[in-house]
Specification:
This protein is mainly α. Helices cover 71% and strands 0% of the residues. Helix 7 (129-145) runs parallel beside helix 16 and helix 9 (175-186) packs antiparallel against helix 15.
């Protein structure tokens, strides 16, 4: 049975918001491609030209396609980035548009830690975690359709896991949330084990492969040379000093940077505030869904997977400085899973009738509506989730408007294609 139903009343406003965010995201993507940003582009340009190495699958695909079509690999990186964002936005939109909206859903929609994260602080976003979030969103849509054979779901999950691990090793720590999606649909049953068998075997094989091919400084230089840069000098050129250079760092070197940055920027205190703010709609969602007694086992599964994932990403928080990125992945993924459970709840005829009775008995006064609008506006515009080095809590609306205008002012077609073909 298809549990995704349209909501005609709110469709235009949700569609408009998602369209604006998607358009701004595409413009920022073009801008950071033209600048060949050392992080958002460098993350995707890691390839196998220096030998097999972790995180190299998307970069190798872009490199090979660039050679085949005589186009800069940057163009194919941008296509992959925008394809991932398109899948993320589509799955988020489809999960939300079929629901009878509640306040927590609106807050999830406008939260600086979900759809708008990549616009809040340039250059945030456009990293390989979008592969994880896009794949998870599409998996949830497939599960809610309810008409796909288990073998196809297992095959999709296997390919999804393989691509995620070969693209970046860190997002595998969020695997518990992917497991949560499958467990919510299949329950803790033998059917779940059958679906998970191939993905788990693939996961262990891919992890063994990536952990034994960490990379070193020579790998970094060969990757940089394959992209057309001069690596004879002692200092690498700018595009190779970001994510590509990280391939050559040891764990001790990565930890040394984190040890210096964390106390300097007061990470614990500032990111605790950001995490609490990002969690407001999620807590509201859990409180609302807990009233549905039949759904409590699903919420318990999700809570257990959140606890497992939180323990796993503690390693990332200890070793890295881009805490905002890891918080964003968790918040976005949990929001998708909560909307999945809400779709299941609202597909229950008894719950649909209860919602209608509650709506009919509720007195809608204009003061309440205005207060709700003001609260949503304040929540969405009064804070932002910094990617790293939390410095302040700027007014997020200015940041989105500022960088969108920058992207628009930089769109000169002849210059863009000249750079793309270089």
């Amino acid at each position: 049975m298809n549990r995704l139903r349209p909501s005609e009343r709110f469709r235009p406003w949700i569609s408009l918001y998602v369209t604006v965010i998607a358009t701004a995201t595409a413009l920022i993507g073009i801008k950071q491609m033209r600048e060949r940003n050392i992080w958002s582009m460098g993350d995707w340009l890691v390839n196998y030209q220096g030998g097999f190495v972790r995180r190299g699958l998307p970069g190798e695909a872009a490199f090979r396609l660039g050679q085949l079509m005589h186009v800069s690999p940057d163009v194919f990186v941008l296509i992959m980035q925008l394809a991932c964002y398109a899948a993320m936005f589509y799955s988020f939109y489809r999960l939300l548009i079929g629901l009878r909206l509640k306040l927590w859903m609106i807050l999830v929609l406008v939260s600086p830690a979900t759809l708008a994260f990549q616009l809040e602080e340039y250059p945030s976003g456009f990293r390989k975690e979008t592969i994880l979030l896009a794949g998870l969103g599409l998996l949830i849509l497939v599960l809610l359709r309810g008409s796909i054979r288990d073998a196809w779901i297992s095959a999709y999950t296997t390919v999804f896991v393989a691509i995620c691990i070969l693209s970046h090793d860190a997002p595998i720590l969020y695997g518990g949330l992917v497991l949560a999606a499958l467990a919510i649909e299949f329950g803790l049953s033998r059917r779940l084990l059958n679906v998970l068998m191939c993905p788990l075997i693939c996961m262990f094989c891919m992890l063994a492969l990536t952990l034994t091919h960490h990379g070193d400084s020579n790998t970094t230089r060969r990757i940089c040379a394959s992209l057309g840069y001069n690596v004879e000098e002692r200092i690498l050129p700018a595009p190779c000093r970001g994510e590509i250079a990280q391939i050559g760092l040891t764990l001790q070197e990565e930890r040394a940077e984190a040890r210096y940055e964390h106390p300097l920027w007061h990470y614990n205190r500032r990111y605790l505030v950001c995490t609490l703010l990002a969690s407001v709609p999620l807590i509201m969602a859990f409180a609302a869904l807990w009233r549905w007694k039949a759904g409590r086992p699903l919420l318990k599964i999700l809570l257990s997977m959140i606890a497992l994932t939180s323990c796993a990403i503690g390693v990332l928080l200890y070793m890295t400085i881009d805490w905002g990125r890891w918080i964003y992945i968790g918040v976005f993924a949990i929001a998708l899973l909560l909307m999945m459970i809400e779709n299941i709840r609202q597909s229950d005829p008894s719950e649909r009738e209860a919602d209608e009775r509650q709506r009919a008995s509720r007195t809608q006064v204009w003061q309440t509506n205005i207060a709700t609008v003001l609260f949503v506006a304040f929540y969405s515009l009064s804070w932002h989730l910094p990617h790293s080095r939390p410095n302040d809590f700027r007014f997020a609306g200015y940041t989105v408007r500022d960088y969108t205008s920058l992207a628009l002012s930089d769109l000169r077609p002849s210059h863009f294609w000249r750079r793309a073909h270089r």
